[in-house]
Amino acid sequence: MEKIEKLRNYLQESPDDPFLKHALALEYIKAGEDGKARELFIDILTLDPDYVGSYYHLAALLERTGDREAAISWYEKGMAAAKRLGDQHAFNELRSVYEDLI
């Protein structure tokens, strides 16, 4: 919980920092607070759809919690973003888990 509090404090100073939000979302997952993590990932991707790393983590969270259709949708959005940005590595990772899911 100490990491969560530190990250929340940092976010008070930089509330739109996608790196801090992403790190906090990952800590929430570790703490079993999937709902809070989901909200943060969606917030990140709404404000910065080019923050490609969050697509994988959001979709994986949704897949793990049983929301298969939403996971598929976020994997697809992530692949589109990665392709648009020319990030072949991220695209390949997203495509691999997407293909396993469908």
Descriptors:
102 residues, mainly alpha, Serine Threonine Protein Phosphatase 5, Tetratricopeptide repeat, 6 helices
What does this 3D model show about the protein?
The chain is 81% helix and 0% strand. It has 102 residues and is mainly alpha-helical. It has one domain (2-101): Alpha Horseshoe (Serine Threonine Protein Phosphatase 5, Tetratricopeptide repeat), CATH 1.25.40.10. Helix 4 (53-64) runs antiparallel to helix 5 (68-85).
User: What string gives the helices and strands in order?
Assistant: HHHHHH
How many individual helices?
A: 6
Percent helix among the residues? over 70%
Number of domains: 1
What general outline do the C-alpha atoms trace?
Answer: globular
The residue ranges in which pLDDT falls below 50 over 5 or more consecutive positions are: none
CATH class: Mainly Alpha
CATH superfamily: Tetratricopeptide repeat domain
Distance between the termini: 35 Å
Rounded average pLDDT: 96
Quaternary state of the chains:
single chain
- Beta content comes to under 5%
| CATH topology heading | Serine Threonine Protein Phosphatase 5, Tetratricopeptide repeat
Radius of gyration: 14 Å
- What structural class do the secondary elements suggest? mainly alpha
The CATH architecture can be named as Alpha Horseshoe
Largest sheet: none
> How many strands in all?
0
